[in-house]
């Protein structure tokens, strides 16, 4: 194991009616609340009304319309403006990863005098951020239990991951019933995202029996419960376990003491969704098997063997090279079984900008330092294989 510091200050409040805790969580944080949400799903499921009722004693301001792949302009900038104008004490994000991510950037930007983009791009380190509380409605990203956010800037095709200790939510409310209405497409994308989060931590140089076991357990649970949720969207048990899997999949606990992997599939996918505004989990489902195929070598085979035998039950007596090939095919087949698009063309991406994206990724994502290093030529080859 390598040295590590693990610290997650976020309180997870899970289960039916967890939302009734909201007033008690918010009260010590202040009276003036900025309620942030997306395009209206929370109104359709009655959650907006429920939140407003619980916040009757608070002064509530609102920022709505936060889009998937949340945009710096207008959403982050507008949120920061509202926080300053109304002297907001606490931000309450109600939605999926995009609403939470946008709200994290708002929390940091609100307490910074300059352009919040300075913080997001690490030109300036945040000294503080407004407190964030969230009610999660889509299980996928793990934003509710980590200190990261991902913000897009359309005019420069940037989609930037911003991680800072000030961005951990104070508390996250997880009631699986709020996720019953998540579509098949978004459920599958959420599953692919969370599965990939674990893969990004599993495929690395230094790992332990402990971290391998935790990762494998979370992936098996994700696969099992995603399949149930796709068939039976209102299966509370499956939606609930899936939700907790997703929270644990991205906050670092699964890779304590592991060496860094470089998160190569995320580095590549962020460019796809920056250039084409595609759904993050769909981009990952397309890229992951192609990335696996590209990096398979005698040096990396052991990870494929471990993954394939423990996750897919591939016969451990087979030659290692065969197990590795079968593992890649099984990963592809898994995402296919979720009904996901498995080619870039299926999500509206053709050859036109592949070279430009490969260059952008190579310049910005540091994948030449990944566990299996990727040059610009490697990245382009993976993108082409994904067409
Ligand atoms: O906008 P509304 O109307 O709420 O609709 C959303 C949106 O259209 C809908 N939705 C959410 N909850 C729903 C629902 N529809 C019906 N019923 C519900 N209960 O789903 C659509 C997608 O929502 P979004 O928040 O974009 O999805 P997700 O949670 O997958 O978030 C994706 C974003 O998170 C980033 C991704 O890059 C992407 O920008 N990520 C954030 C990470 C983090 N903070 O740690 C890590 C991830 O790797 C990822 O990069
Ligand atoms: Zn992700």
What brief labels describe this structure?
single chain, 387 residues, alpha/beta, six-stranded parallel β-sheet, two-stranded antiparallel sheet, globular, binds 5,6-dihydroxy-NADP, binds zinc ion
Short overview:
The protein is an alpha/beta fold. It has helices at 22-26, 41-44, 47-54, 72-85, 97-110, 117-120, 184-202, 209-231, 236-249, 264-276, 280-295, 301-311, 320-337, 354-364, 376-385, and strands at 11-14, 32-36, 59-63, 90-95, 132-136, 148-153, 158-163, 171-174.
SSE arrangement:
Blueprint: E1 11-14, H1 22-26, E2 32-36, H2 41-44, H3 47-54, E3 59-63, H4 72-85, E4 90-95, H5 97-110, H6 117-120, E5 132-136, E6 148-153, E7 158-163, E8 171-174, H7 184-202, H8 209-231, H9 236-249, H10 264-276, H11 280-295, H12 301-311, H13 320-337, H14 354-364, H15 376-385
Parallel strand pairs: 1-8, 2-3, 2-4, 4-5, 5-8
Antiparallel strand pairs: 6-7
Helix pairs in contact: 4-5, 7-8, 7-9, 7-11, 8-9, 10-11, 10-14, 11-13, 11-15, 12-13, 14-15
Zinc ion is lined by residues 141, 193, 197, 266, 280.
| Total helical elements | 15
- What series of H and E elements makes up the topology? EHEHHEHEHHEEEEHHHHHHHHH
Low-confidence spans: pLDDT under 50, at least 5 residues? none
Overall pLDDT metric? 98
Provide structural commentary.
Helix content is 48%, strand content 11%. It has helices spanning 22-26, 41-44, 47-54, 72-85, 97-110, 117-120, 184-202, 209-231, 236-249, 264-276, 280-295, 301-311, 320-337, 354-364, 376-385, and strands spanning 11-14, 32-36, 59-63, 90-95, 132-136, 148-153, 158-163, 171-174. The two termini are 38 Å apart. A hairpin with a 4-residue loop joins strand 6 and strand 7 (158-163). The protein has a 6-stranded parallel β-sheet with strand order 1-8-5-4-2-3. Strands 6-7 form a two-stranded antiparallel sheet. The model has no long low-confidence stretch (mean pLDDT 98). The protein is globular and about 65 Å long. The chain contains 15 helices and 8 strands. Zinc ion (ZN) binds at residues 141, 193, 197, 266, 280. Zinc ion binds at residues 141, 193, 197, 266, 280.
